[in-house]
Amino acid sequence: MAAVGVVPLLPGVLPASAHATESDRPDFPLVRDGAAVDLFVDSADDPAVLRAAGDLQADVERVSGVRPRLLHTVPEKAECVVLMGTIGASPVIDRLIGQKRLDTSRVKGRWEASVTQVVDRPLPGVRRALVIAGSDRRGTVYGIYDTSERIGVSPWHWWADVPVERRETVTVPAGPLKRYEPSVRYRGIFINDEQNLTTWSHRKQEPDKNIGPETYSRVFELLLRLKANYLWPAMHPYSDFFNKHRENPELAERYGIVVGSSHPEALLRNGVHEWEPWAEEHRGADGSLPVYDYTVNPGVISGYWRARARQNATYESSWTLGMRGLHDSALETRYATTIPEKVVVMNNIIADQRRILSEEVGDAATPQIFIPYKEVLELYNAGVQVPDDVTLVWPDDNHGNMRQLPNEAERRRGGGNGIYYHLSYWGRPKSYLWLDTTQLSKVWQELRRVYEHKVDRMWIFNVGDIKSIENGLSFCMDMAWDVDRWGPENIDAFLVEWAGRQFGRRHGREIASIRTEYYRLAAELRPEFIGRGILSVVHHGDEAGRRMAAYRALLERTRTLGAKLPGAYRDAFYQLVEYPVHGAYLMNLKFYWAERNALAVRQGRGAGTNRFADLAEAAHAEEQAITKRYNTEIADGKWDGIVNPYPSQIPKAPGRPTVSRVAQQDTSGLGVASEGNDTGGARPLSFSSYTRDRRFVDVFNTGFRALEWSAEAGHPWVRLSTTGGSMTEQTRVWVEIDWKRAPQGAHDATVTFTGAGQSTEVSLRVLNDGERARHRVPGFVEAHGYVSIDAAHFDRRVARGGANWRTVRGLGRRTAAMEAVPSTAVPITEDFADRAPELRYRVRFTTTGTFPVTVFRLPSLDERGKRRLAVALDDQPVTVLSGQAVATGNRGDAWARNVEDGIEKLSATVTVTEPGEHVLRLFMVDPAIAVDQIVINTGGVPDSYLAPPESYHRSHRPDPVAEVEPDGSDR
């Protein structure tokens, strides 16, 4: 398997958030000359440590082919040995600390910390030892898995089939490696909407169960290798509830995983499965079934909770307080109809649950959490009293935007604060369950913001079926351990490092670039959100076609790289890189062709209409084929059922789009539709010497019989990609200007299309200011009736009052976005020019008037505040723009549109009194608001989903047209 340039993790390459000291001492050998050193762990240490030691034993064998001995008694004589143990639980470790042979500063007494250090002559008869010591049981476990990573075993070796490079000699550096305690205490996942995981588990893991201990053992190991410690288990009707199989909580305890439950599952009870049989056993005196309503049946419900608290009292658990309805439904309170009445009920529920935990679990009933999710947030804000030692777990809006963050009083709580954050979601307004599509920069921005608000007790991430979220999950766990490691300027460095660990450092940067572009395209529109009528196929050079060209180029890069990898890496590459890119491409492609098909019907095309229908259905069939390959061929069918865009019991990704066909007729006719027009050419093609665009004209056959056609430009400086030929379906003709030959000034021109006895003229409007003007203009230039600006391409940034705008790379629909920081800054509501941080953009206008300006911002929320920024032109009065601050959870309203689009469009007007140079000014009003793009419509912006291509700027965008464009081939 070893190959040049394919070294996932060489010895000495450290996992994230571990801190090493350089040493000139020789590396410590784990395997040399066909022999492995012995591993020692005290049999009295925690079972989680003993089990992880067994994993290190297996990992050394994976790398070397040699299996070391795992000892529970110290060898009397050895050249080298690995000593593993927990401080206070391992006499050998404690003795080394007492002798000051082991440096445990910033480790001993801390949460989940560890030190890995080579010690000379640690014991009589032992010359050298690699000592792995943890502050507690998980600290030791993480130290052990650090060693596994250092020798080349990825946390994803099983879950994504990342191969392990075989080496005859296996060593680790001698210098001390310390893993200090994490930024966030509890870090974990919620397995949710898990139909695919259930299908796979039943087929490939446990045929007699629907997610049982065999599957959970794999989940627990993955979590620990990712340095996580917390789980909300699967909870839907098609899965077995966690406590159905008593091996599950026992296994969690043995692995060292803290098990909790989600917002509708109070005190570890799964209402989907467990309430109905409990109610059956506790019918009323009249034989009626009790309902899950605390105002109706408090005694029965209290007993229901108490039984689970007693059953799981001996395990390290997290206890969810409060109440919602069964299966993620709203709280039911028949005898409490007003908000104040419901607040009283919730307070009584919490008091009852606290009493149960005190009586059944005692002091070990920690952590206790309260999750103000959906309607419960309204009750919390209305006065629910949550005890100070309970952790408040704040939810996002299910689409990656935190709804509300703790205020000053809540930040001082003894129980602290946590978050529940979605990387996968089923629900309104649309679901995204199939692929990992949330930009890492978006995740970073929100997580950084919550941490600045002292939210550091618990981070729980909804990861759906786990598979496809590998990248996002790894990043979240990495950030939860060391929140300061990645910043706004180097989030892509995480991708480089992560990809390098899986596929070799030689390929890390290219894979990171591929993933970054993949995330950017998803930020424009998630592949699960694609549909008819969203993207334009007639404006901005075929907006949808440009997007498809970007996807096509990305897929070509992906396949080219995949072909370079040794065969052993192909399965992992397909899972982690190729399938997401290819799947997203095809999901978009089938709707692109369906949109072209619908347009063809409106245009009266003949054979081309059916051609587009065929292409749409072929793309859907190919999408099904690559999913089948994932499930049945990759890793010899190991993942059968794990990936499916269309599971039967949850909302589906868009399926086969509807297309139309026309009956074949032995006729022909010439049709023409120029860019910007559904049919014909009423909207002239616009050309500017600044943007140097190319525009398209679709020439098509209205019948099925081939016709001869020709195109002729009215001026020699108008260039055509083709000038005619024989056509059965359609041809896209690209029109460009030869700027070296074109005369300066404003000109009208034409291109005439002839065929089948018909002739159609397309108008061109050409503005040529000359090469000298192009190189001298200092700012963005108005052209085609608009100015389009990427927010990160500012000319000046002004900090004021301790606040500023910062560039966050990889955020938003373009290459970067601008965020107002710090997130804890005080809002500025007056005297903006003197008090508010500012972004300035130089703009050259050629027209005058009052024009709409649209600011594209990322849809962050603040349900106890506002989401505002302000704009002005030059020294004119400032206009404050207010964004959506509240997540309604509805379909079709402003919040729904924002999360579907990934941006919110805030609109104002600016007045240009004279042509020439001006300054557009953008001010922070509320902190932590992020801006992606700005568009000023001077009369030419058509209705389209994306912003127009960025305007010319000699520094930032010297060649705007040089983006990936449709290839222009016949379709």
General description of the model:
Keywords: Hydrolase. Pfam families: GH115_C, Glyco_hydro_115. Strand 35 and strand 36 (879-883) form a beta hairpin. The chain folds into five domains: 18-179, 2-Layer Sandwich (Chitobiase, domain 2); 186-487, TIM Barrel (Alpha-Beta Barrel); 512-637, Methane Monooxygenase Hydroxylase, Chain G, domain 1 (Up-down Bundle); 670-773, Immunoglobulin-like (Sandwich), CATH 2.60.40.3170; 777-937, Sandwich (Jelly Rolls), CATH 2.60.120. With 971 residues, the protein is an alpha/beta fold. Mean pLDDT is 95; it is low at 1-13. The relative contact order is 0.07. The protein contains 21 helices and 39 strands. The protein has an eight-stranded parallel beta sheet. Strands 1-10-7-8-6-4-5 form a seven-stranded mixed beta sheet, sandwiched between helices. Strands 28, 30, 33, 35, 36 and 38 form a six-stranded mixed beta sheet that branches. Helix 1 (47-64) runs parallel beside helix 3 and helix 15 (505-524) runs parallel beside helix 17 (570-603). 30% of the residues lie in helices and 23% in strands.
